[in-house]
Amino acid sequence: MKKLSLLIVFLLGITAVYGQDFLKKSKVSGNFQMDGNYYWADKGIGITEEDINGNEFGAYGFGKIQYQLGDFTAGMRFEAYQVTPMSGFDMRVDGMGIANYFATYDDGTIGVTVGDIYDQFGNGLVFRSYEEWTLGFDNALRGIRAVFRPWNGVTIKGLYGKQRFYWAGYGNDVPASEERGLVRGVDGEWDLNQSISSMNDSKLHATLGASFVSKYEADQSLVVGQDELIMPQNVASYAGRFNLGYGRFALSAEYARKINDPSFFNNFIYRDGQELLASLSYSQKGLGMVLQVKRVDNMSFKSNRLATQNDLDINFIPPLNYTHTHSLPSMFSYATQPLGEMGVQFQVNYTIPKNTALGGKYGTKLAFNYSQVNDIKRDSIMVDGVKMINQPGTKGYNSNFFAIGDRMFYRDLNFEIEKKINAKWHLTLMYINLYYDMETIENHPGAEAVNANFAFGEVIYKINRKNSIRLELQHMWDNVGPNETIDMTHADYYKKRGNWFAFLLEYTIAPKWFISVADKYNYGNPIADNRDHYITGSFGYIKDQTRIAISGGRQSEGLVCVGGVCRTVPASSGISLTITTSF
Description:
By secondary structure, the protein is mainly beta.
C-alpha cells in the first residue's frame, strides 16, 4: 500500500501544479478480471468429501490501471489469489498485493522504464519476460530498461534486473529457496529499409538483430552424488537473427548459444546450449505456405540453478506445432522440451476461388498442417575411460547438430475445410492424426504413447441478423481401447485415454447474450471407472468491454498450454464465475 500511496500523492501533486490543463491531457486506461470457483464432491470422477474439505472455494483476480501524459506512462497491477488444489495453479501464487508497477518516459529517441518490465529480444531465444494469466505465470523483470533510437530503423535496448518469483522479495536477504540471479542484457535491431535511403522503396526488405544476455548467481558449491561441483557465477548467452522479404517470399532465422550452465534441470552438466529457429514462407492471394524448423539443445536458462518447474525462465522456446482449441485434441497439447528437441512444421492455406464448381458462391477455404517434434541424438562421451551420457559434472554428451533422435515426442497431421454454404449456413470439418509421447511431455514414466485420430465438425446456422445456433461434434479414436490390458500400477496415466465423444450446442443473441451446453464422454476408457460424462453448461452476457460468464459442471483432467508452456489441471466438479472488463 505504501507504493500505491506514493503514486496517488505524486498524481495529486501534478494536478495541483498544472490544474485542469493537466486533466485534459491525461489519459487513464486499464482492465480487470475476476475468476471464482466453487467446488463440490463428485465421487463419479473420484473427488471425495475429504478432497473438498477446506478446498471448496478458489478465487483469483487482477486490476490493472495505466496513466499517460505525453511521453510519460505509469501503471500498476493489483493481484489477488486465493487458490485451492482443485484449480491447478501452483500454490505459491496464493496471496495478494501490488505485483507489478512501472514508470516510463519515451520521446521516440530515448526511452527509460523503471519498475517491472515485459520485453522480448527477437524470438525470445535468450530473453523474454511476459505473463500468462491462464497459467499463473509471470516472470516480469524488476529493474531498469533503456531504449535508444539514434537513427531511423535502429533500436538499441539495455536492461538489468531480477525476475519475479511469485510473492518473494527482491532483496539480498530472501531465503535460499527464493533467491534469483541478476539478469543483464542488451539487444540491437537494424531495419535497413528505414536507415538506407536507397532501400526505402526496394522490393527487398531486410532486418538484422543481435542480443547478449547474462545472469549472475553467487558462487555456490554443490554436492551431487559423491562429487562437489563448482557452479559458474556468470552465464552468458548470445543470439543473432535476420528477416528478409522479397516479393511474395520471406525468410527469417535466429541462432542462439548459451555458455555451460549446470542446473537441476539439466542434471548439472557443463555442456553449452544452442538453438536454431528458421522460417520460409510464400504468400499470394488465396494461397499461403510456411515451413518452419527448429533445433534445441540444452537451452534451459533460469535465474536460479535449482529451479525445477516452469519458474524463472529467462528465455523462451517458441513451439512450432499447431495450436488446437477444440476440447478433445487440446487435452494433448505439446509442451516444449528445452533439454533437446528437433521440430518441423509445414502449413498450407488455400482458398478455392468464388464462383467455381468447388468454390461455390463464397469460395472454400482449405488448410493443411503437419508438425513433428523428435528428440535430439545424443552420443556418449569418455569420462575416466568409461562411456557415459548426461552424468553430473561432465559435458554430458556429444550431439551432431543435424542428427535427429529416434524418439518422437509429438506429431500432428490435420486437414480442415471451411465452407460458407449460403447466407445462413456455415460448415467446418477437420481431421487430425496425433502422436503424443505422454511419458516425456507429462513426465509419466512407463506411460504408453497416444496415437489417436480425431474428427471434428461445426455447423453454424444464422436464424436472423442477431440470433444464431452453433453445433460442434468431436470424436477421438485412441490406440488404447476399452479391452486393453494395462498395468494398474500406472492407472492414473489412463484417465484421459480411450475413445471419446464430445458435443457443444451454443445459442447466441448478438451482441450481448450466449448460452451453451457441452459434454465429453470417455466411453472407451480401458478402466471402467474412468468412463464418465463431463457435462457443462455456460451462460454469458457481454456489454461493451465487459463480459460476464457463469459455467457449471465437470472439468476433465488435462494440460492447459499456452505457447508451449503448460500447467496441469486436475479433474473438478463445481461452478465458476468470470468477469472481465476494460476501460
